[in-house]
Design brief:
By secondary structure, this protein is of the alpha/beta class. It has helices at 42-60, 64-80, 82-93, 97-117, 156-167, 181-193, 208-217, 230-243, 265-277, 294-309, 329-344, 381-384, 400-408, 423-432, and strands at residues 3-4, 7-9, 12-14, 21-26, 29-38, 124-127, 133-141, 144-148, 171-175, 201-203, 223-227, 246-250, 255-259, 287-293, 349-352, 371-374, 391-397, 412-413, 415-419, 437-440, 456-457, 475-483.
Length: 496
């Protein structure tokens, strides 16, 4: 079944005004068109932003508890449509049905969490330094928010932005990824079905180069929240910086797991398999590097290769499949390029996958076999650049300090993990790893929606999504002073 994906502006389904039609293909069966849409122009973005701007005042004055009721209803509807949404996601972007069910569940959890925040719209009261004076802080919405999301979590990641932005009282213009346009459309339709007023949430379909760029330049948009590559995020920040538009960036990673000799190696093996090859490595938190003590590397690598060879590759709609396709032909070529770089890098050794193992994957579709390189060094491109595919680099160390040094020797700082039974090493790793997330005895993937998510260095610009911290992206703090002394009091001058 092919879907027509459309814009939704002021609750009306309309095509983008461009004559250019963009198709979303099933990555497991590229001859199947899952959905198609007309590219949205700058004029379409302008219309969506004006709709959001018109709706802002009324929506922002709704009590937070009333906004929360819509989010509770959204959670109920997501539960109702969970299987249909998961199937659609798998058809659009390829990951296994088990994973896409988890993707929708994350959106359900998100709706429930931030609906609860509608009853916890906390500010602070702070003592004044002067008598007969009261001080407090309150949150206010930012305004019209432009949201640009990636294709690898086409329901969960938009929910991480849309839902907290709504509970804060903002109105929105949302551009889903061009590889998963109908998943984005269904999410918006569900929120409208839950009771969102007209104009509060608007959808524009399009590519980053045209529609996304128009969002960055639109004068009626006050904030951009972006999830995607570091290169694109840098451009987003540059454009927004010129007009002082607020911007929150969630970008790439070059994540690693450290395995110490005292680790539970069976647990570590399971974690590496899941962290490296879930979603075919197409996660910003995927385990791209394995940093392992040289004394245990050979035995562990043999077991890892054997287990990886057993992974079942194919159409993610088949229940027994563990690794689906890459999202599109461009991403497949990117992975092939990096494997070729690895083969040509001095000392790196291809021990599994790559071009010699193509017979393992279906002939039809954008599939690539799980690939492992041994003898990788920290200076190699394999160890420093984000691949976003099922490619794992193995690096060795002799001391714990060396392991931490290797871990931090990358421009990124999103996720990390360590396997060890030594509590001293655990707390040193927590302290010394340069990353926004550290897992102990677990893989680098598995974020929970009630905890902050984001990275340091080239992985982000200081903001955190999820948790209560995301509210600081989508709201402004206002400080209020109430002086009931009946006279002029001067702070710092009249309190000595």
């Amino acid at each position: 079944m092919e879907y027509l994906s459309q814009n939704i502006i002021d609750h009306k389904h309309v095509n983008g005004s461009s004559t250019r039609i963009v198709q979303s293909l099933n990555p497991a069966h590229p001859q199947q068109v899952v959905s198609s849409f007309h590219e949205s122009s700058a004029e379409d973005v302008h219309a969506a932003a004006l709709s959001a701007k018109k709706a802002f005042k009324a929506w922002s004055l709704w009590p937070a508890q009333e906004r929360a009721k819509i989010l509770y209803k959204t959670a109920e509807l997501l539960m109702k449509y969970k299987e249909d949404l998961a199937t659609l996601e798998t058809r659009e972007m390829g990951k296994t049905i088990e994973e896409t069910r988890g993707d929708v569940q994350e959106a359900i959890d998100c709706a429930l969490l931030y609906a609860g925040e509608g009853r916890r719209w906390f500010g602070q009261t702070i003592p004044s330094e002067l008598p007969d004076k009261f001080c407090m802080t309150v949150r206010r919405p930012v305004g019209v928010c432009g949201l640009i999301t990636a294709w690898n979590f086409p329901i969960a990641v938009p929910s991480w932005k849309i839902i907290p932005a709504l509970i804060c009282g903002n109105t929105l213009v949302f551009k889903p990824a061009e590889d998963a346009p109908h998943s984005g459309q269904r999410l918006v339709e569900i929120l409208i079905e839950a009771g969102l007023p007209k104009g509060v949430l608007n959808l524009v379909q399009g590519t980053g180069e045209i529609t996304g760029e128009a969002l960055l330049h639109c004068e009626h948009i006050d904030l951009i929240s972006f999830t995607g590559s570091t290169q694109t995020g840098s451009h987003v920040a540059e454009v927004c910086g010129k007009t002082l538009k607020r911007v929150a960036l969630e970008m790439g990673g070059k994540n690693a797991s450290i395995i110490m000799p005292d680790a539970n190696l069976e647990l570590a093996l399971d974690g590496i398999l899941w962290g490296a090859f879930a979603t075919s490595g197409q996660r910003c938190t995927a385990t791209s590097r394995l940093i392992i003590h040289k004394s245990i590397k050979d035995d562990f690598l043999k077991k890892l290769i054997a287990q990886t060879q057993q992974l079942r590759i194919g159409d993610g709609l088949n229940a027994d499949i563990q690794v689906g396709p890459l999202v599109n032909a461009k991403q497949l070529e990117r992975v092939k390029k990096y494997v070729e770089i690895g083969i040509n890098e001095d000392r790196a050794t291809l021990v599994l996958g790559g071009p010699n193992d193509i017979q393992r994957v279906p002939k039809e579709g954008f599939f690539y076999p799980p690939t492992i390189f041994d003898k990788v060094t920290p200076q190699m491109r394999l160890a420093r650049e984000e691949i976003f595919g099922p490619v794992l680099s193995v690096l060795t160390f002799e001391s714990f300090d060396e392991a931490l040094e290797i871990m931090n020797n990358t421009p990124y700082g999103l996720s990390s993990s360590i396997y060890t039974q030594d509590v001293d090493r655990v707390f040193k790793a927590i302290r010394d790893i340069d990353a926004g997330i550290t897992y102990i005895n677990g893989p680098t993937i598995g974020a929970e929606v009630h905890l902050p998510f984001g990275g340091v260095k080239n992985s982000g610009n200081g903001h955190r999504e999820a948790g209560s911290q995301v509210l600081d992206i989508f709201s402004e703090w206002k400080t209020v002073y109430v002086d009931y002394s009946g006279k002029l009091q001067r702070a710092q001058m009249d309190n000595n």
